Amino acid sequence: MTRFVSLIFCASLGAGLLACGSSTPSGGGIGGSGGGASTSALEIIPASNAVAGWSFDASNSDTANGAATATTQQGTQDLVDGASADFFASPFTPKLFAWETYVNTTFSAADVSPTDTNFPNGATIDVKVLQMPTADQASGLYTALLKASLYVGKTWTEPSSPKVGTDSRVADTGDHWWINFYQGDFYVEVSMGPSYSPAPGFTPGNANTRAAAFAFAAVVAGKI
To answer: CB–CB of 86/189 below 8 Å?
Structure first.
């Protein structure tokens, strides 16, 4: 069984992710316990190779040796562009922002984009975790971001299976699977896409990559 097939198999097992090489989940089922927050956002970000096939992206100097963190909007903006200001928009006051990037070279071109023969092996995952002061702020941020410019215009669905966290949504952006969820005091985003070069191809609606993205998100949720 290849690593990719193993990962897809793990996605169907939910609570059995531990046996598939993931980090140890603290709660039962694919969404974890939902019974509170870890000490820090850093504790719920998987270590390099904790999820089979996914290692820290050595090409990203900010996250090559562990998650990058910030406690202010400007600090977060210095790390990542996009909706960082929306994370800190009133009344939201994140305690800690953590960011990690991963690469998986075991994905084949057929796994990711069967119709694109130029697509290279590999895939990437970007994880953003915001530790909020309360569970109400985590759920409130999850809802409020739907009105932010980066999120407007995406076709979001709320999957019943698999479901991660207390509530989750997913969008196929055309070149990434983008999963948002909240659980306890945490709001989390997991974005999975193709490797960097040559020019990436991506087959929208690809079930293999969707399952792999949810399997990774489930590991994060299981640590909360």
So the answer is: no
pLDDT averaged over every residue in the chain = 78
Provide φ and ψ at 88, rounded to 5°: -110, 10
Residues 58-88 have pLDDT tens digits of: 989 999 999 999 999 999 999 987 679 999 9
Instruction: Please report, for residues 44, 118, 172, the alpha-carbon distance to residue 223 in angstroms, rounded to integers and kept in the order given.
Output: 5, 37, 25
Structure tokens, 17: 């992710």
Q: In b/e form, how buried is each residue of 117-155, taking b as 16+ CB within 10 angstroms?
A: eebbebbbbbbbbbbbeebebbbbbbebbeeeeebeeee
Predicted local distance difference test score (pLDDT) of residue 10: 38
107 vs 28 pLDDT, higher one = 107
Residues 96, 69 contacting (CB under 8 angstroms): yes
Please check whether residue 113 is in contact with residue 203, taking contact to mean a CB–CB distance below 8 angstroms: yes
User: How many CB atoms lie under 10 A from the CB of residue 208?
Assistant: 20
Per-residue b/e over 63-85, b at no fewer than 16 CB within 10 Å? beeebbbbeebeebbebbeebbe
Would the pTM count as exceeding 0.70?
Answer: yes
